[in-house]
Amino acid sequence: xxxxxxxxxxxxxxxxxxxxxxxxxxxxxxxxxxxxxxxxxxxxxxxxxxxxxxxxxxxxxxxxxxxxxxxxxxxxxxxxxxxxxxxxxxxxxxxxxxxxxxxxxxxxxxxxxxxxxxxxxxxxxxxxxxxxxxxxxxxxxxxxxxxxxxxxxxxxxxxxxxxxxxxxxxxxxxxxxxxxxxxxxxxxxxxxxxxxxxxxxxxxxxxxxxxxxxxxxxxxxxxxxxxxxxxxxxxxxxxxxxxxxxxxxxxxxxxxxxxxxxxxxxxxxxxxxxxxxxxxxxxxxxxxxxxx
Length: 292
Description:
Strand content: over 45%
CATH architecture of the largest domain: Sandwich
Number of helices: 2
Low-confidence stretches: 1-20
Distance between the termini: 80 Å
């Protein structure tokens, strides 16, 4: 009897294995998607990007969003037209993934074969409808972020050649205990994007202290109205962020007495035991305000 039990157990596993081998489940084809390459031209400025994910759509519908690089199974075969949309972390927040509207989607017809891996290397450009309201790379000392909103020239953004992201210069601001706070703005813009149009601020930055990015509007008398701020934490390495300013710009555009607006940076040293302490450095490059 004991021998019968010992023989039966392997037999059960053998039968199970046969069922797995003879399964009717389809074998997928596979797509291996490499990181996107962005090409720019003319007045579009830097080709710096931070495309962190790909959103995939086939003739069968949306397959999902995947961090890059990605290897994705596809239960289709034959010549299939596939769309690859560039995905970003909106406002630098991983919990806010989104397709970046100002980059073109990449589309390719791929011959899918079950069990076979096809490698995709998406190359994209800016959408031809994209309008660059602001495009500052700090290569010229007469950059547009010269509005001293705090009235302190010691905390202005100046160009420097020692701490650059790319090119020859970047923007730099220094804070210390004598000059612990910064509030600077861009030139004012009077042409608001069309109502409902998406508006994003692109920014390369490196900062030893936290700072805020916001939008401020002005009426004809110069009285300011803040439309809100976005928080960016300190970063030891250069980072690229895409900040969605659509709601802020729409709010200002819908306020009848607001006639112009500007992008604003705000920062402060930590306030501890009744005083500001330490020092801070803020580095900026390739600031773009993009709309349709």
